[in-house]
Amino acid sequence: MAAERVGLLPSEIRAVVRMAALARSAVSASLVAEVCGRAVDEVAAMLLRAVDVGLMVQTGGAFAFHPPLLAAATAHGLSASERARGHAALLGALERQAADVGELLFHARAAGDLVAAARYAERAVERAVRGGAPAEAVRLLHDLLDDPGLPAGSGPRSSGGSGGWR
Questions:
Q1: Which of 16, 37, 54, 64 places its Cα 20 to 30 Å from the Cα of 73?
Q2: Is residue 158 assigned to a domain?
Q3: How many domains does the chain have?
Q4: Residue 116 and residue 27: Cα distance in Å, rounded?
């Protein structure tokens, strides 16, 4: 179903919509424009075409895939290297917008930037501990440390206390 709907769009619009699909939630046209290197008005018009074919919905100033499973199916049209580059571009744009640390962590890992992922995991762990969610803190650390691509010396410091990451 998603492939059919995406196929109804011109290739230029497909590329923009697939980039939007990499985000885990609703996106603004300005975020997608920054990631794609296009004008905001142009991207907004492209995302409206995705709304017209039933891939996305527009609520307020944001665009989202509905149902959300359509985002995963749409992003599947990108190669692994295109997805990694897209997540890296999203990470950069979200860093400039001071986005939620959970979003930054997700995109850093998806981009294969495990050094940045370790940095954002530390922040997310600290937030979870401060928020009274130690199980979430343990899950975050476990997920990161289980990643075989974690560079040597990027794990928790052995010097007691909150210590951070190397």
A1: 37
A2: no
A3: 2
A4: 22
